[in-house]
Amino acid sequence: MKRVFYGYYLAAFAFSMGFTTGCVYLYSRGVFVRDQIIDFDASRTEISLVFTTVQVVSAFFAPVLGYLLDRFPIRNVMMFGAFMMACGFTLLSRVETLVQFGMVAAVFLGFGVGCVGTTGCTKLMVNWFNRRRGFALGIAIMGYSAAGAVMAPIALYLLDNIGWRGAYMLFAGVCAFGLLPAIWLIVRQKPSDIGLGPDGDPPLEEPTDEVAVQEESRPVNRLEAFIEQLKVYAGFTRSVAFWGVVFTFGLMAGTFGGFNVHLFLHYTELGIAPYSATLILSYTSGVAIASKPMFGWLVDHSNPRTATMCSCVCNITAMLVFSFADVAWMMFVAGTFMGLGFGGMVPVRASIISRLFRLEEYARAYGSLRLCMFPLTVMWTPLIGYIHDTSGSYMPAFNTFAVLFSLSALLAFFTIPRSIPDTAQASAVSNRTSSRDQARSA
Questions:
Q1: Per-residue DSSP letter, 107
Q2: Composition of the chain by helix, strand, coil, percent to 5
Q3: Which of 57, 120, 261, 360 has a CA that sits 20 to 30 A from residue 110's CA?
Q4: CA gap 244, 247 in Å, rounded
Q5: Helical pair 240-269 and 44-71, crossing angle rounded to 10 deg
Q6: Cα gap 110→393, rounded to integer Å
């Protein structure tokens, strides 16, 4: 009987990591904010700025995180992230002011969530899959949407029964006694560690022992090595497709994060009961669950431009429906398109980046992407809060984003190519050929 490829177990593990981090942070904050505004006597703009600080730290840490993931064992980096999250939630349960809340969240969650979340998990999938990479990325990132499908009503229950401080103590325990041991026991760096190649194929040829010894014996000049690292990062910025991904998916990520904080408040302002509002949020995330492997399959079997344009069209439709919807059933319609559009965002952009650059550069490229997207992601959460504080409604925000998504779709059409050569695979073939040639000449 043929054994199941271990990469699929890791995809399930990545799913669970996304599910857990989505539950304890991404999909609970929009519900907890109801009482945090009261406890800290804060406006919606101010509470939005607190969550923005987490994005700021996470964005500037992203290139460093990419370097760590490319150079050190993924397991070690992810364990550091889980430890930081456990410490962060413990401290958040004890803060007394909004400033303290923002500082603790920025430092501990800004560092921790990235290590355990999308960047670390996508690096793991890129290491273990090639032909099925888009589909594997879709499965791995489904965990975030699965969290959204179940967490909103759970977060409201926790808020009503033990408060957001008690919930944060519970989350700290999940990180310390759930995530840490799971990462230690399950994570493996690459398929060659178990004698296989990507997708469970036969292992790639490794350089001969003589060639490996020659490589290891080369003197290392730290200045030259540092310059080479700078060249790697500079190389990302010379790619037109890279900037197309930055602007298109940066707007998507910023909008998703912004409305994730505000939609629960928007629904309840329209007269929708709190638990009914959480059901709409859960439904939206449920649609996103289905869209992730669907968009992963689409980018594997169609082309990156088509997948990106489909995501943009779904987001435009969602914003247009939100702009005039005022009853619950119309929110479900808007949620359908929002779930489709935002759900496909992460697997598509991760697949594009993994094809544009070499395998050993992927995490640094993905980290650089997050930093370059930072100006487009950091502004939207407080801006949406400011629009509501000044106009008394979220409708102008929906209209604004409908226009912005239309512009991003146009930009994606001209910057993201229909086909992208698999640079990572080509690099592996080139390395194998070079190794054989060196061995023969020796």
A1: I
A2: 85, 0, 15
A3: 360
A4: 6
A5: 140
A6: 30
Report which of 232, 208, 229 is spatially closest to residue 220, judged by C-alpha positions.
229
Tell me the C-alpha distance between 410 and 335, whole Å: 23
> Residue 15 to residues 154, 308, 314, 409: CA-CA distances in angstroms?
19, 22, 24, 29
Pick from 122, 120, 167: nearest CA to 175: 167
How many Å is the Cα radius of gyration of the chain?
22
- Give the contacts of 363 (CB within 8 A, at least 6 positions apart): 65, 66, 67, 68, 69, 70, 119, 123
Q: What type of residue sits at position 233?
A: Y
Q: Are 375 and 56 in contact (CB under 8 A)?
A: no
Per DSSP, the three-state class of 150 is: helix
pLDDT band at 229 (very low <50, low <70, confident <90, very high): low
CA nearest to 79, candidates 189, 182, 191: 182
Residues above pLDDT 70, as percent of the chain: 87
Domains located in the chain, CATH noted = 6-188+223-435 (1.20.1250.20)
14/118 Cα distance (integer angstroms): 9
pLDDT of 83 strictly over 90: yes
Q: Is 417 helix (H, G, I), strand (E, B) or coil?
A: coil
Reported as a single tens digit per residue, the pLDDT across 16-53 is: 888 888 888 877 887 888 888 888 888 877 887 887 78
Residue whose tokens read 């501990």: 108
Q: Letter for the amino acid at 248?
A: T
Comparing CA positions, the residue from 91, 84, 92 lying closest to residue 109 is 84
Tell me the pTM.
0.64
Q: Is 418 exposed, middle or buried (0-12, 13-18, 19+ CB in 10 A)?
A: exposed
CA distance 260 to 254: 10
> Residue 273 is encoded by which pair of tokens?
């009961």
pLDDT in tens, 268-313: 888 888 888 888 888 887 887 778 778 877 877 777 788 888 888 8
Say which DSSP state 2 is in: P
| Phi–psi pair at 276, nearest 5 degrees | -65, -35
- Indicate if the alpha-carbon torsion angle 127, 359, 432, 297 is positive or negative: positive
Banded pLDDT at 86 (limits 50, 70, 90): very high
Answer yes or no: are the C-beta atoms of 82 and 183 closer than 8 Å. Answer: yes
Give the separation between CA 63 and CA 57, rounded to whole angstroms. Answer: 11
